[in-house]
Design goal:
The protein has 71 residues and is mainly β. It has no helices and 5 strands. Strands 1-2-3-4-5 form a 5-stranded antiparallel beta sheet, with no helix packed on it. The relative contact order is 0.18.
């Protein structure tokens, strides 16, 4: 499931991932300026979360990334 709030510049992605018999719920939030947070949940193990800033990788075509470019 993906939701976007273009007014606030926020995108939310939710997904369920199965690995063998285990199921993980993944919640990812990304902002236009690169802020992100992700949490990984499973009822049988401790949840894991991360927040930080995404930075674009250098384009392999050597095109410089301009400040303010959207992700």
């Amino acid at each position: 499931k993906m939701e976007s709030n273009e007014t606030k510049g926020i995108y939310k992605i939710q997904m369920a991932v199965k690995v063998g018999a285990d199921k993980f719920d993944v919640y990812l939030t990304i902002g236009n300026e690169g802020y992100c947070s992700v949490s990984l949940n499973n009822p049988y193990i401790q949840s894991v979360s991360y927040s930080g800033t995404l930075v674009p990788l250098k384009d392999s075509r050597n095109i410089p990334v301009q400040r303010g470019d959207r992700l």
